[in-house]
Write a structure and sequence with these properties.
The protein has about 210 residues and is α/β, with parallel strands linked by helices. The chain has 2 domains: about 130 residues, 3-Layer(aba) Sandwich (Rossmann fold); about 60 residues, Arc Repressor Mutant, subunit A (Orthogonal Bundle), CATH 1.10.10. It is built from 10 helices and 5 strands; from the N terminus they run E-H-E-H-E-H-E-H-E-H-H-H-H-H-H. Strands 2-1-3-4-5 form a 5-stranded parallel beta sheet, sandwiched between helices. Strand 4, helix 4 and strand 5 form a beta-alpha-beta unit. Helix 2 runs parallel beside helix 3 and helix 8 packs across helix 9.
């Protein structure tokens, strides 16, 4: 099954450009386009994409707000921020809202397709620069519930960038069980995304940055 992708950007020419080169990959299917956050939230409910490519600066509702709503209402949908700005407020805001990745619009096509596929697999991928900013700015959750030994194992592997399938192979469990563990980890730590869980693992010393 191809990865279902929703494109969100207030510039039509940007959406057309993204559509043009992403549709060349048979593993991706563009299921819709939105020009602002309000449309994005509506179409995510309607189309159930696997991954949303989300611009951050848009009218009516910005991408950070839309990402937060999407991750709250449909947590299985992954959001990759795709923007022209790399400043601390935008990076931190997008990741706090639940985005699994953060890319600049000058990213080349191959890197973008890899990021979409990684997001669909639940893999967290961040540049060292973005990771450094995030680990400095993101606060740890207050009084999180205690994780089980197995959940700590899953969290360590998740934070190393492994997909659910790879975590399952590493631990000898099925992918569905991995998803259950990940959901439990996020719930106990009061986090919205695997990216936030990765940052938690780095900040608490479970993995090295």
């Amino acid at each position: 099954m191809p990865i279902r992708v929703l494109l969100v950007d207030d510039h039509r020419v940007v959406r057309q450009g993204l559509h043009m080169f992403l549709r060349q990959d048979p593993e991706l299917e563009i299921v819709g386009e939105a020009a602002n956050g309000v449309e994005a939230v509506r179409l995510v409910h309607q189309l159930k994409p696997d991954v949303v490519l989300m611009d951050l600066l848009m009218p009516e509702m910005d991408g950070i707000t839309a990402t937060g709503i999407i991750k709250h209402e449909l947590p299985d949908v992954e959001v990759v921020a795709l923007t022209s700005v790399l400043e601390d407020g935008s990076v931190v805001g997008a990741i706090r809202a639940g985005a699994i990745g953060y890319l600049l619009k000058d990213t080349d096509a191959d890197e973008l397709t890899r990021a979409i596929k990684a997001a669909a697999a639940g893999q967290v991928q961040m540049s060292p620069t973005v990771l450094a900013r995030l680990t400095r700015e993101i606060k740890l959750p207050e009084s999180p519930e205690k994780l089980t030994g197995r959940e700590i194992e899953v969290l360590r592997l998740l934070a190393k960038g492994l997909s659910n399938r790879e975590i399952g192979l590493e631990l000898g469990i099925v992918e569905k069980t991995v998803k259950t563990h990940v959901s439990s980890i996020l719930g106990k730590l009061n986090l919205l995304s695997r990216t936030q869980a990765t940052l938690y693992a780095v900040r608490t010393g479970l993995v090295d940055a």
